[in-house]
Amino acid sequence: MSVLDALPPYVTGIDTMMGGSAELTAGFLIGGNRPALIETGPARVAGTVADGVAAAGLDPGDLAWLVVTHIHLDHAGGLGDLVEVFPNATVVVHPAGARHLVAPERLMASSARVYGELLDPVYGELRPVPADRILAAEDGQSLDLGGRRLEILHAPGHARHHVGVFEPDGGLLFAGDGVGVSTPASPELRPAVPPPDFDPELLFESLHRFAERRPEQLILSHFGPIGPPLERLAEAEETIRRWCETAERAAAEHGNEIDHIEAALRERFDAERASEGTLEDELLNGFRSNAAGLSRWIAVKQRAAEG
User: Which residues contact 143 (CB under 8 A, 6 or more apart)?
Assistant: First the structure.
């Protein structure tokens, strides 16, 4: 039995099989007369996602919306392929991410620096998305699914181009990476705070916005529903505060070097991470990537303090 089976009947969870591994990254097909797919996974698994939509009984021409919580490749990398598979679907993205979908060269170059040799075999290349297929969604904008609707909530902190997606009838909150990562193999809730945009204060504000919706289900792209929702949102904030405190202490004592921060994070939190050293850890939110995001945040904070 999959954790995705806990979703309501009108939501089909699709395991993208990113990196050839189960239960790392999911897409979510929301039923209605104008159905929506939330998250595409990377380009390498676009075919798997398209097959999942077909297996749910949906004709490609009937999909109305392709919604991504942000433009990182594990969430939006398949868009360029899937707009061809689903010819009538409008791509919905934060305004700050839209231009990178039309001209993805800078995004791909940045991703190459982050993912290195994993870029091609795991993620593949985000192909350009035609500008006339994109809706740059404003904060609070509603999408009509025909009998249901989705509310787009700007939710920066993990990335400035991050949104949450709320389905009010069922109380479903699709949180992308804005809450963190919790998979069946490693159910502890772990932060995802990579460079370059991590900002804890913005992330805390986003978590509070999520809590204000009082969701019935809190659904992570990595991987599926977790609960109880309000308790897990509070846990996410507390966990991120502890990671930030640990990083700032390491920077103050040893210097704001990624190696120093990574070592401090490992020393304090290693026992909490069942996924340490696995492909999941490497692809989603390893100590190294989180240390890089925390180090950059500390550097920005220091520059601001110096005027």
Answer: 36, 65, 67, 92, 137, 149, 150, 151, 152
Question: Burial code of 162-193, b = ≥16 C-beta within 10 A, e = fewer?
Answer: bbbbbbeebebbbbbbbbbbbbeebeebbbbb
Which one-letter amino acid corresponds to residue 112?
A: A
Sequence-distant (6+) residues with CB within 8 A of 197 are: 156, 158, 159, 160, 161
Measured distance CA(88)–CA(223) in Å, rounded: 28
Strand, helix or coil for residue 145: coil
Q: Tell me the per-residue pLDDT of 235-269, one tens digit each, with 9 for 90 and over.
A: 999 999 999 999 999 999 999 999 999 999 999 98
pTM strictly above 0.85: yes
Measure CA of the first residue to CA of the last residue in the chain; give whole Å: 55
SS3 content of the chain, % helix, strand, coil (to 5): 45, 15, 35
Which of 45-59, 140-154, 276-290 bottoms out in mean pLDDT, i.e. has the lowest? 276-290
Reference 97, options 75, 116, 115; nearest CA is 75
Q: How far is CA 94 from CA 43, 82, 127, in A?
A: 19, 18, 18
